[in-house]
Design a protein that fits this description.
flat
Length: 84
């Protein structure tokens, strides 16, 4: 039987698997304090160099968009928990 968390996981299309994997690798490098912060630009640059990313514009656009949504979601969730 498939765990419910995996059953609800969205399908990731093959053309963005590299971006998903990069996001997973980069996520622990984000700052945390009063809330969750974005992945630092220095970490994105390091990833681009280490993994020899070809399409830097695509990479940055997609990672930054995912990161902004993630940070907003987590910070909203944390705010609602504080209000309870």
């Amino acid at each position: 039987m498939t765990p419910s968390a995996l059953a609800k996981e969205p399908e990731v299309f093959a053309d963005v698997l590299d971006i998903r994997d990069a996001f997973i690798i980069l996520s622990p490098s984000r700052s945390a304090g009063m809330g969750v912060g974005c992945i630092p630009l220095t970490e994105l640059e390091a990833y681009i160099r280490l993994y020899e990313v070809d399409d830097i514009d695509r990479f940055l656009q997609l990672i930054r968009a995912m990161d902004a949504e993630f940070v907003e979601h987590i910070n909203k969730r944390n705010q609602s928990k504080l209000k309870q």
